[in-house]
């Protein structure tokens, strides 16, 4: 129990450091837009367009992104319901928060899971743009902390889950 308290304390400290120290008007505009890149609407639209593309390479990317996204989302939701971690803005004082559409629990970050699931999959097909895609997926995760809706460990777990899902789908399906 002492270890869990230590982890929670560090997680809260890092959350406050990122959430409060980065706060500025410019990021108040940019971060909600970044977080929307990994919304259900954005990713479903991306998957549909790539799956319907007549180019077999792009079609395969879309198909595998869709499968990875479905698998990672299901696992993410199972964890959310099992762990039932309360979102930080509900219990941590003095956070800068913005009201955005969220579900009840925070662990793992579904947006981060989805962003890494899709970005890692595309990277496996197109290694030359891996750096840009990992930067984009990481920015989605940081946006979730900036907005006060996730702890850093929620984001880290989402990144791991999305990445593992992509590797599993890419190499086994």
Description:
GO terms for molecular function: hydrolase activity. It is found in: Cell membrane. Its main location: membrane. The structure is a single chain. The protein has a single domain, classed as Vanadium-containing Chloroperoxidase, domain 1 (Up-down Bundle), CATH 1.20.144.10. Helix content is 73%, strand content 0%. It contains 7 helices and no strands. It is globular.
What's the helix and strand layout?
Elements lengths: L1 H20 L3 H12 L3 H12 L4 H28 L26 H16 L4 H17 L5 H21 L1
Which structural class do you get from the secondary structure elements?
mainly alpha
Number of DSSP strand runs: 0
Beta-strand residue fraction: under 5%
CATH superfamily: Phosphatidic acid phosphatase type 2/haloperoxidase
Radius of gyration: 16 Å
Please state the second-level CATH architecture.
Answer: Up-down Bundle
Helix content: over 70%
The CATH topology turns out to be Vanadium-containing Chloroperoxidase, domain 1
Keyword list:
173 residues; mainly alpha; Vanadium-containing Chloroperoxidase, domain 1; 73% helix; globular
Characterize this entry briefly.
Helices cover 73% and strands 0% of the residues.
């Amino acid at each position: 129990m002492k270890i869990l308290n230590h982890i929670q304390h560090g997680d809260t400290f890092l959350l406050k450091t990122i959430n409060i120290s980065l706060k500025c008007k410019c990021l108040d505009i940019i971060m909600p837009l970044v977080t929307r890149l990994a919304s259900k609407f954005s990713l479903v639209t991306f998957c549909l367009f790539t799956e319907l593309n007549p180019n077999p390479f792009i079609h395969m990317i879309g198909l595998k992104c869709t499968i990875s996204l479905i698998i990672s989302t299901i696992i993410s939701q199972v964890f959310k319901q099992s762990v039932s971690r309360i979102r930080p803005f509900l219990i941590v004082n003095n956070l800068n928060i913005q009201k955005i559409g969220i579900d009840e629990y925070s662990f793992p970050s579904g947006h981060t899971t989805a962003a890494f699931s899709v970005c890692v999959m595309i990277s496996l097909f197109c290694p030359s743009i891996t750096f840009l895609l990992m930067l984009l997926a990481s920015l989605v995760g940081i946006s979730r902390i900036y907005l006060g809706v996730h702890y850093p460990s929620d984001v880290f777990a989402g990144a791991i889950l999305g990445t593992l899902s992509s590797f599993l789908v890419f190499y086994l399906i």
